[in-house]
Amino acid sequence: MKVSDFDYILPEELIAQKPIEKRDESRLLLYNRANDKLDHRKFKDIVNYLKKGDCLVLNDTKVIPARLLGKKVDTGGSMEFVLLNRIKDDDWRVLVRPGKRAQIGTRFSFADGQLEAEVLDKTPEGGRIVRFYYQGIFQELLDRVGIMPLPPYIHESLEDKNRYQTIYARHDGSAAAPTAGLHFTPDLLEQIRAIGVNIAKVTLHVGLGTFRPVKVDRVEDHTMHEEAYHVAQEDVDIINNSRGKGGRIIAVGTTSLRTIESIADENGFLRAGSGVTDIFIYPGYKFKATDGLITNFHLPKSTLLMLVSAFAGREQIRAIYDQAISEGYRFFSFGDAMFLY
Known about the structure:
6-stranded antiparallel beta barrel, 28% strand, 6 helices, 9-stranded mixed β-sheet, 2 domains, Thrombin, subunit H, alpha/beta, QueA-like, 17 strands
């Protein structure tokens, strides 16, 4: 299967640069897989397409302000770090730019010395392992001096960094937001609960690998990045009970979907636990646990576009995207959504 089969042309003006004022006022494209029917609504109308007994699965990861701008201690040369994940204590795996300045043993200073880092090692993919030095609590310091690592296609600054968080974000650890969840408001979730829809949480910390281009020609040759997950027993029980009673399991975002598919057995029932997943879903994959998917519109030739093509059909997704473009939908992280069911 060719990566080029998942390419499409998107007018640049359709790449959403900022979130709309009200989260649930974004547009929603609905696709019924059973009858091949499309519909167009506002996101808040999704309540009309959910049923009592359904289960929404939300990813409650929280984006950390993972981008740090600093200087090399001995020369003053500028340096950018993006935190990927904590290895242990104050040791982190990071992306660096420019890489030639980040040799093993080199020290860097951030926020006028409030935070310092030493390079301990290099990683196979070109990043670094660093150790941070500071006074106080690291997360509080990071909240003060770090910058939200917005995707590279967003060129405008974000005035309110909470708009790059879901309203139910709880567990620090992501370098990117699970953007399908950005459309939900507290009010909308209450309406959904009120009609008898169950809500379960999973945690999958989203890495920047989600934005890395696929550099091979054949889909099957791509190596997927790893991401850490945790799913509690109480949430597994909610999902399994919903399935057992005939309810639909609806993943909010590709990250939720990848998590539940990673921990599902052949009958679609989940097991609780923690781990890492590098599951790569593309056409031909047999879904075990997912009956519906709420998601945004994804980049050309991306693994996420391959995933939604596996779920709804490659030709169907191509037609859906063509229509979304002709209808002027907003694309990518701050863009509009679709519900595939």
